[in-house]
Amino acid sequence: MGKLAENWKVCRICGNACSVNRETDDQRGMCGVPPLPHVAWHGLHLGEEPPISGDGGCANIFFAGCNLKCVYCQNWQISQEQISNEKPLTATQLADLILSYQDSGAQSVGLVSPSPHLLTVVPALEEARRRGLTLPIVFNTGSYETVEALASLEGLVDIYLPDLKYGTSEAGAVYSGVLDYVRISRAAVLEMFRQVGHLQLDARGRATKGLLVRHLVLPADRSDSTEVLDWLARNLGKELHLSIMSQYKPNHMVDRGFFPELARPVTRQEYDFVLDYALGKGFKNIYFQSPDSKDTGNPDFTSQTPFKWES
Question: Is 129 exposed, middle or buried (0-12, 13-18, 19+ CB in 10 A)?
């Protein structure tokens, strides 16, 4: 925690390296979040990949704020406008929330966009472990953390669920508002893999530990998917568990008339091309979605029940 706390005072937890003092509420970096995290929504979520949701669901905790500014973000209401009616949580209060799902039937506990809040998340996970947490912790992220920040999570996170968004940093700059995305995200994913290795499943097919990489297909290959898949094949191998997502919808800034090249869903042909390319690279563990599915998981966080599959 010492090095992480030092980074908090001159914040370099993520690739934005804003260098603001995150201990004071009058200095906020690119993520825009205050010193203590706000939880925008939490509940059992049935829409993650089958090894993570299982039958009981993943108890997802959605944090307000994000270190990326994706122009199409499906969670934009909480990631960028930071809609939240909840009070900020201390580490002990966050540990209480995590432990509240221990006997709920949840298969795992997912932390969604937790990176800006590591100074609270790390001690919360340490306390939850001391108090008897046995459910796997899932770290759901856009892969823009520094290696040093991720190192503080070693032994606390069981499953890393990064979205490796782009194959070029130009796309990261245009569509997520960040610099040097490729170098930073790839280093982050390699650190995650170093900590937990390939995804491990129990006898019932439930994930217990490891890495599952997501990649969202964008219209007209604006995410440079083949570059992403080439790198993953070279560096993490064919045993990697890989989720290729078709759930893109023209949300947020795109829905407001900006970035017209993204102003439509992904076609079946575009999605199938990426899926076939991944199969051609020899990946053995691929999770896929039907591009024709109407149940894409796009939430409305102004509602008490933002996900229609929640239980």
Answer: middle
- Give this prediction's pTM: 0.94
**Backbone region of residue 182 per phi and psi (left: phi > 0; alpha: psi in -120 to 50; beta: other values):** alpha
**Which amino acid makes up residue 221?**
D
SS3 state at 44:
strand
Q: Which two tokens stand for residue 186?
A: 């790839």
**Residues near 75 by Cβ (< 8 Å), separated by ≥ 6?**
62, 66, 112, 113, 299, 301
> CA-CA distance, 209 to 193, in Å (whole number)?
11
Residue 12 CB-half CA count within 13 A: 9
Condensed to tens digits (0 to 9), the pLDDT of residues 81-131 reads 866 666 899 999 999 999 999 988 899 999 999 999 999 999 999 999 999
> Can you tell me which residue has the tokens 């407001």?
256
Domains of the chain by start residue, with CATH = 31-288 (3.20.20.70)
